[in-house]
Design brief:
Chain lengths: 111, 591
């Protein structure tokens, strides 16, 4: 891969990739902590950095059918969670364009 | 000067006057450059006036009278005096009113008082124009009197004629020095002091012409000026204009074809063992330097056929080489390892001349100062410093918040340093005045490049846009370019082509993107590489040569599509693969 451009987040509480320690998301961008992923607890974020998107897939999640992209840390390519591309039920539409990061894949910096 | 604009009313009246004057005066009148034989041809004046329509041309914007007058002027300036006179006659439209002709004659003959009277009789509405014109004429009279050593007369002119006009008093004071200081004491250093002798009368006429409203005295070479304007406009809107030798013709609107833009791979350079991250041509375009993840920098030489071959491979860095900078005279190169040391190399011998280190820190960027005696370095402690070639620190700017991935440039005048800082800003630091300007974006800035004339900055953003900023005076966003792909890597773009009329960029979809700078249109997306294209460089000495560096370990040299098959002997350049057969080209994406 080419010369990676790594973004750095400002703020006190930052979530970083557990494996390579680049910034992933800021605590301020958490929308909800009430999600579950492959590895356990997961948080819904409005914005993430240093992430590569995988291809779109249709998946049946506990909340219904969604089109999602898995997201990977752009520095070490470890899977971090997924992004909601499209939701098929009205009550789930609010998640479109938002990101899920699995708690197990991250480390906390700043608290 | 409040030039009287486009008044068709007075000019029409004046034309009618000229009709009568033409018809009445049996003995030839003083038309500029009149031919003495003209009077014999007066039979022509009884011809009916052709084409009496007021407007010509399909768009309804050209006034016939004005059109004929500038054509007449062009005929005279080309030397075709007979034709000029004949046209005036045939069309019934006179180039200058006879009053203006008279004024011209009087000025050329030095009849100052008469010319002043004529000036007043032209019937100009604007008093200040009459005064300024009178001032010019009297000033000429004054200087000519001085030249003839008629000092008392000159003084009288100054007192009785010039001063009462009460305009431009500063100039009056200036010229009065000429009485005190004859020509011998010309002050060479004070540029405002034109203690010159009287200028030529033709020059005076030119200045008068600038002062008088254009419909009274048509500006010189008006038709040529209009035609040139049209040609330049055509050239500027030509999106593919990239060659000098396209001589513009008046017969056809100028439009270059796509074939002027490099769009074919001419060479694939394989000498690096890993991703190539950075490319830059030397200022004279004779060499190309490439920096790679394999920790080396390679200097390539461009031969007379436009083929590149390895000249030197510069090894020594322990970290990947992130950027480099050619010295102003192209004799040396600075290379910077990622948060490592900076090395200075001799470009012709390939020898490492110096290794620069800062204990406990690493460098992130490097740039030469235009005097070639010092360099500017970005340090990973967020500061910028200036070192001389021995390694001594001359200056340091702390607190600039320089990032670990940042670009650094020094302007050609050595006065301003440009660097990325604070993720979405670019700092323009004036070295002496200690003044800072900032370009602020709302997205992270990944890289930037400076135009050759130092007036513009091309900024690559996180969100896949490239922004063009004007950095003269107040920084101003001028244009945006989109189309390429960038999601996680550092992609670079550059200016290039004839007069840097194009923008090129790398992309994560392995293509090279080219836009027309003025219109923002995407002209080409060139496939060929099999990996992310990290950097592009356009040869400053050859507007048809573009180089691109990619993750596929290669550098591609792009050129024109219709390049004739050059004689390539058995591939004695083992490091350059030549595409000898045009048929191997895959179809390129024409956009």
């Amino acid at each position: 891969m080419g010369r990676l451009y790594i973004q750095n987040l400002a703020g006190e509480k930052i979530f970083k990739c557990k494996f390579c320690k680049v910034d992933s998301a800021s605590h301020n961008d958490i929308i909800s902590k009430d999600f579950r992923g492959r590895f356990g607890r997961a948080y819904l974020f409005r914005n993430v950095v240093n992430i590569s998107l995988g291809p779109s897939e249709d998946r049946h999640l506990t909340s219904g059918l969604h089109t999602v992209n898995d997201i990977y840390c752009s520095s070490c390519q470890q899977i971090m969670g997924w992004r909601y591309e499209k939701a098929y039920e009205e009550s789930e539409k609010y998640k479109e364009g938002l990101y899920i990061l699995e708690k197990e894949r991250m480390l906390k910096d700043g608290w | 000067m409040g030039g009287v604009e486009d008044e068709t009313e007075p000019s029409r009246k004046r034309i009618r006057l000229s009709h009568e004057v033409l018809r009445d005066l049996a003995n030839g009148l003083s038309i500029v450059g009149s031919n003495p034989d003209f009077s014999g041809d007066l039979m022509a004046r009884s011809l009916p006036i052709k084409g009496d329509e007021e407007i010509v041309g399909s768009k309804g914007v050209i006034k016939r009278v004005e059109f004929v007058r500038i054509i007449t002027q062009a005929l005279y300036s080309l030397g075709y005096e007979n034709s000029g006179a004949r046209l005036q006659e045939e069309s019934g439209v006179s180039l200058q009113s006879s009053v203006v002709n008279l004024l011209i004659q009087q000025v050329l003959n030095g009849k100052w008082n008469e010319s002043l009277a004529t000036l007043k009789s032209i019937g100009l509405l604007d008093e200040s124009i009459i005064k300024s014109a009178s001032f010019l004429i009297l000033e000429q009279k004054y200087f000519e009197l001085l030249d003839d050593d008629k000092v008392m007369d000159a003084l009288k002119t100054l007192r009785m004629e010039i001063t009462p006009l009460s305009i431009n008093n500063a100039r009056v004071r200036e010229i009065s020095w000429s009485i005190l200081f004859p020509v011998k004491f010309v002050h060479v250093d004070s540029s405002n002091f034109s203690t010159t002798r009287a200028k030529s009368r033709a020059k005076l006429l030119a200045e008068l012409q600038k002062l008088l409203p254009p419909h009274v005295m048509i500006p010189d070479r008006r038709l040529e000026h209009l035609v040139e304007q049209a040609l330049i406009l055509q050239r500027d809107t030509c999106m593919f204009h990239n060659s000098e030798d396209n001589v513009m013709s008046l017969y056809k609107d100028h439009q270059c074809g796509r074939d002027q833009i490099p769009s074919r791979t001419l060479q694939v350079l394989e000498a690096h063992n890993d991703e190539v991250w950075f490319l830059q041509f030397s200022h004279d375009g004779k060499c190309l330097a490439s920096a790679s993840n394999d920790r080396t920098t390679i200097i390539w030489e461009v031969d007379s056929h436009g083929d590149l071959s390895v000249k030197h491979k510069l090894s020594g860095h322990q970290k990947p080489v992130s950027s480099m900078s050619w010295s102003p005279d192209d004799s040396q190169i600075l290379t910077c390892g990622v948060e490592e040391n900076v090395r200075r190399w001799d470009a012709s011998s390939g020898e490492c001349l110096h290794v620069y280190e800062k204990a406990g820190y690493g460098f992130v960027s490097c740039a030469w100062f235009p005097d070639g005696k010092s360099m500017c370095l970005g340090v990973n402690d967020k500061s910028i410093c200036m070192w001389d070639l021995e390694g001594k620190e001359l200056q340091c700017w702390k607190g600039q918040r320089i990032l670990k991935i940042s670009d650094l440039q020094v302007m050609n005048d050595g006065k301003q340093i440009i660097s990325t800082c604070r993720e979405s800003s670019i700092l323009l630091l004036d070295v002496e005045a200690k003044v800072e300007r900032l370009i602020e974006e709302d997205q992270a800035i990944t890289s930037f490049s400076l135009s050759r004339d130092n007036r513009f900055l091309l900024v690559n953003l996180l969100n896949q846009e490239i922004h063009l900023w004007n950095i003269e005076g107040e920084v101003k966003l001028v244009a945006k370019y989109k189309g390429h792909k960038r999601t996680c890597f550092l992609i670079r773009s550059c200016f290039g082509g004839l007069e840097e009329a194009f923008i090129a960029s790398g992309s994560e979809d392995s293509q090279v993107y080219i836009w027309h700078r003025g219109s923002g249109e995407l002209i080409q997306a060139l496939p060929g590489h099999s990996g992310v294209v990290n950097c592009v460089a356009w040869n400053p000495a050859n507007s048809h040569m573009l180089a691109s560096a990619s993750d596929d370990h290669t550098i591609r040299i792009w050129g024109l599509n219709d390049l004739k098959m050059k004689h390539k002997g058995p591939a004695n350049h083992c490091n350059g693969v030549h595409y000898c057969n045009r048929k191997t080209d895959r179809g390129e994406t024409w956009l």
